[in-house]
Amino acid sequence: MKRTLAFLAAGLLVLLIGACSGPEPKPSGEPAPGPTPAVPRTPIGELPEVDVDAVLAHTKVLSSDQYEGRGPGTKGEELTVAYLIEQFKKMGAKPGNTDGTYIQKVPLVGITPTPAPLVFKKGATERRLAWRDDVVAWTKHVADSATLDGSELVFVGYGVVAPEFNWDDYKGLDVKGKTLVMLVNDPPVADAANSSELDPKTFGGKAMTYYGRWTYKYEIGAEKGAAGVLLIHETGPAGYPFDVVQSKVSEQFDLVTPDKNMGRVAIEGWITLNQGKSLLALAGQDFDALKKQAATREFKPVPLGVAASMTIKNKLRTIDSKNVVAKIEGSDPALKNEYVVYTAHWDHLGIGPAVDGDTIYNGAVDNASGVGGLLEIGRAFTRLTRPPKRSILLLAVTAEEQGLLGSQYYSVTPIYPLAKTAANINMDGLNVHGRTKDLTLVGYGASDLDEYARDAAGEQGRVIRPDAEPEKGFYYRSDHFNFAKHGVPALDPDEGIDFVGKPPEFGQKVRDHYTQYDYHKPSDVVKPDWDLSGAREDLKVFFAVGYRVAEAATLPEWKAGNEFKAIRDAQLKARP
Ligand SMILES: [Zn+2]
User: Fold this and answer.
1) Which helix (H) or strand (E) covers residue 317, if one does?
2) 47, 216, 375, 563: least buried by Cβ within 10 Å?
3) Residues within 5 Å of ion ligand 1, judged at the Cβ atom
4) How many Å lie between the centroid of ligand 1 and the Cα of residue 64?
5) Cα–ligand 1 centroid distance for 212 (angstroms)
C-alpha cells in the first residue's frame, strides 16, 4: 500500500492526543528480499538457552489472582513493578533509566464512565439502547461529563478519507456536531479481475490498513468536527467478538495531554450489529444494501433523520503509571551508546465485569508470558561470556491494553535517542502449544530484522511465514508499532501455525479457540496443558536476532519502499 505524506503527518499529529496512527508495512507473501546483512555467525546452538521453566514460573506469578490482572494504577501494578525490579536486580541488569532507577513514570488519566442509555429518536418513536448489552461508549474528554443532545445521526459507511485510493466517504458533507455511524475495517473493494477476491491494490485487499482500525474511525470523526462516533460492531470485520468491546466499560486510560483531549469527539462508542440494523430500519434504510454501497467509491453519506442523546458522566483520576526498564551495558566503548530494545507490556485489564463469576482478568498469555520471555532473554544475555557490543534495553511497558500508551510515551519521550536505537523486538503473547516448524512475522518483509529472524529460525530448521490473519490488523495492536512509526526497525513476531506432530489445522484451531474463549477474558490463565517447548525456540530466535544486531557492523534498515524508511533516514542523518 502506498501511503501519502499527508497521512503520515496526520499520524504524527494525533500522537499527542493519545491515539495510535500511522502507516503500515504491508505483509508480503514473498520471502523478504535482499541479501542477509553481514552479521557475526555465532551459531545459534552456541548461544545461551532461554530458560522456559523460568518463563513459566514468572507467568504463573504475574497472572496469579494476587496480581489482580495487573491494571495500571492498582495494587497489581505495584506488585508487578516490584517483581520486575527484583528480577532485574537478581540477574544483574542495571537500572535502565539515566536517573539511576528502573522506572520511567508514565502520567495517565483514568476515566471511568458511569452507565447510561443511548437514546435514538425519530419523530415520536424512541429507542433506548441498554448500556453494555447494546452499546458501549465513553468519552476521552478529561471532564466531568460529555453529552450528545439530540445530535443528528449520519451513516458514513466506513468513514474513510484516503486520497491515495481516491476514496472519500464524506463527499463534502458538513458533519459538524453530528454523530457518525460507521462500519469497522476497510471498505471491502472487490477485485475487478476476480470478484470473489478483494482488490489487493485498494486498502491492501484482505489485509487491514490503519483506515480499518477503530482508533482511526474516532480520529477522523474528530477531524471532521463530529460530536460523536458510533461503530457498528461485526465480529468478522472487527477481528473480535462484542464481549471484547464490553470490557471497555471499566476504567480506561489515556496519556495526559495539554488540551485535556477536548479535540476528540464528545462520545466514542460501539453498538451491536443488531442495534445497528434496527437503527437503519428505523431510518427507513436497509443495513445490507447500505453496507454494499459503502464498499464503493460512489457511496454518499446518508443522513438518517434520527437524533441521538446520551450523557456520560466520568469518574476521573490521574496516576503515574510506570514503564520498568533495565539495561545490559554493551562491551564496545562507542557502540554501547546504541541500544537494542526488547519490549513486552506488563499490564493487562485488571479487575472487570464478571464472566462466569470471575472478575480477575489474569492475562496469562497476554502478556504475563511475554514479560516472562523478556526477563529470561535478559538473563540469557547475562550468561554470555562477553556482553554484546551494543547495549540491551529490557523495557516492560505499561498501558498497552489502553491503546499502547506506555510504549507511546517511551517513543515520544525516549530515555535514549531513537536515532541510537538499533531495533525493537516485541513480545506480546508466547506460544504455549508446543513446537512449530515455523515462526510468524507480522509485517514480514519490512526490514532487515526479518532476515535476522529468518536466519536464526533457519538454523533451527524452521521457516518464517507472514501473518496468517492480516485482515485483523495485528500490526497496529502492540507496542512495536510505536517504535516503527518513529522510524526504529521493529520486529513483531507471533507464534507459528504449523505444529510439530499435529494436524495442519491445529494451529488455526488453537488460535481461534484463544480468540473466542480466552482473549481479554478472565479465563486467560495458565492452563495445565501448556507446552513451552515452542516458546523456547521462538525466544531463542528473538535472543539471536537481538544479539546479532547488537554485534553487527551496521544498523538494520527498513527495506526500500517501506514507509518508515524516510523517517529513519532523516533521523540517522540528524544524529550527532
Ligand atoms: Zn497484549
Assistant:
1) strand 302-328
2) 47
3) 366-367, 428
4) 17
5) 19
Alpha carbons 419 and 423: distance in angstroms, whole number? 10
How far does residue 348's CA lie from ligand 1's centre (Å)? 7
Taking the centre of ligand 1 as the mean of its atom positions, its distance from the CA of residue 520, in whole angstroms, is: 9
* Distance from the alpha carbon of residue 55 to the mean position of ligand 1, in angstroms: 16
Return the closest-CA partner of residue 421 out of 396, 461, 391. Answer: 391
374 Cα–ligand 1 center, Å:
13
Predicted TM-score (pTM) of the model is 0.75
Q: Which helix (H) or strand (E) holds 306?
A: strand 302-328
Q: Measured between alpha carbons, how far is 441 from 454 in angstroms, rounded to an integer? A: 9
First-last CA distance in the chain: 33
Written as nine digits, the cell of 164 is: 491515495
How many angstroms does the Cα of residue 92 sit away from the middle of ligand 1? 27
Distance 543 CA to ligand 1 centre (A): 20
Between the CA of 526 and the centroid of ligand 1 the distance, in Å, is 15
Q: Which of 367, 370, 351 is nearest to 66 (CA)?
A: 351
Distance 369 CA to ligand 1 centre (A): 10
CA of 468 from ligand 1 middle (Å) equals 18
Q: Give 333-338's long-range contacts (Cβ < 8 A, gap of 24+).
A: 335/389, 335/390, 336/389, 336/390, 336/391, 337/391, 337/416, 337/420, 338/390, 338/391, 338/420, 338/421, 338/422, 338/555
Give, in degrees to the nearest 5, the angle at Cα 33 between 30 and 38: 140
* Ligand 1 centroid distance, CA of 74 (Å): 18
Query: How distant is the alpha carbon of residue 187 from its chain centre?
Result: 21
Distance of CA 36 to the CA centre of its chain: 29
Three cell numbers written together for 63: 497472572
Tell how far the Cα of 71 is from the centroid of ligand 1, in angstroms. Answer: 13
The whole-angstrom separation of Cα 50 and Cα 40 is: 20
What spacing in Å lies between the alpha carbon of 191 and ligand 1's midpoint?
A: 34
Instruction: Please give the distance, rounded to the nearest whole angstrom, from the Cα atom of residue 162 to the centre of ligand 1.
Output: 29
Ligand 1 center to residue 365 CA distance, Å?
8
CA–centroid distance, 570 to ligand 1, in Å, is 31
Distance 79 CA to ligand 1 centre (A): 19
